[in-house]
């Protein structure tokens, strides 16, 4: 199972102005750095929590259908299933009808059930599920997740001289884990 981001978010859940107000910065000379720290903090949160904060496209690649009837999409909330392709042995794609599915879009991770599941002919990545996930706008992002991004970006800004932007996130601020705890995937 491989999850690929096909369309990045067009905006961030936290604006530059919000981060500057949080940090009490008035000058514009570090705006580029601050925007980069917002992106790093958002990407880290999405990776550890399995959420998509802003609308973005994904492609889930499967070698075969799961043993049970439920396919876990690994991101939440899912807005739409955009297409399902199954490849035959010659690499020719067959489109599955989207009317034959049931989607639990807000589960963590989101779940999909497809009634008719033709066997893929190619042994690797024979199934592709394209979907759009994320909250509709920054206003819909839960406040604790926005706060986590602000706290994390501020922490990264505070320690910006110790580690380059490319090596971030180098550390997590105290209290961050408590902010995102309700959104983490738990396993037994």
Q: Can you put this structure into words, describing what you see?
A:
The two termini are 20 Å apart. The chain is elongated, with a radius of gyration of 19 Å. Helix 2 (31-49) packs across helix 3. 26% of the residues lie in helices and 23% in strands. It has 4 helices and 8 strands. It has 188 residues and is an alpha+beta fold. It has helices at 16-23, 31-49, 143-158, 176-180; strands at 2-7, 56-62, 70-72, 78-87, 93-95, 101-104, 111-114, 127-133. The longest helix is centred in the first third of the chain and has 19 residues, at 31-49. It folds into 2 domains: 2-52 and 141-183, Hypothetical protein yqbg (Orthogonal Bundle), CATH 1.10.3230; 56-133, no CATH class. The strands form 2 sheets. The chain has a 5-stranded antiparallel β-sheet, with no helix packed on it.
Brief description of this entry?
By secondary structure, the chain is an alpha+beta fold. The protein is 26% helix and 23% strand.
Rg calculated over all Cα atoms: 19 Å
Beta-strand share of residues: 15-25%
CATH class of the largest domain: Mainly Alpha
Number of strands: 8
User: What's the tally of helices?
Assistant: 4
CATH topology of the largest domain: Hypothetical protein yqbg
- Percent in helix: 25-40%
Which architecture of the largest domain would the CATH scheme give at its second level? Orthogonal Bundle
Strand order of the largest sheet: 1-2-8-4-5
- Average pLDDT confidence is 90
* Overall tally of domains: 2
Tell me the major beta sheet: 5 strands, antiparallel
The stretches of 5 or more residues where confidence is low (pLDDT under 50) are: none
N- and C-termini, Cα separation: 20 Å
Secondary structure category = alpha+beta
């Amino acid at each position: 199972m491989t999850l690929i981001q096909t369309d990045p978010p067009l905006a961030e859940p936290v604006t530059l102005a919000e981060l500057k107000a949080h940090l009490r910065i008035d000058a514009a000379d570090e705006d580029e750095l601050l925007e980069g720290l917002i992106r790093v903090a958002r990407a880290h949160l999405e990776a550890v929590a399995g959420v998509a904060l802003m609308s973005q496209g994904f492609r889930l690649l499967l070698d075969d259908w799961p043993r049970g009837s439920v396919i876990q999409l690994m991101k939440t909330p899912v807005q739409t299933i955009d297409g399902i392709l199954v490849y035959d042995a010659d690499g020719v794609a067959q489109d599955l009808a989207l009317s034959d599915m049931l989607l639990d879009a807000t589960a963590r991770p989101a779940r999909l059930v497809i009634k008719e599941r033709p066997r893929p002919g190619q042994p690797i990545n024979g199934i592709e599920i394209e979907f759009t996930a994320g909250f509709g706008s920054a206003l819909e992002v839960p406040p604790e997740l926005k706060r986590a991004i602000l706290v994390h970006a501020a922490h990264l800004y505070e320690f910006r001289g110790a580690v380059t932007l490319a090596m971030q996130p180098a550390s997590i601020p105290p209290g961050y884990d408590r902010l995102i705890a309700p959104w983490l995937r738990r396993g037994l």
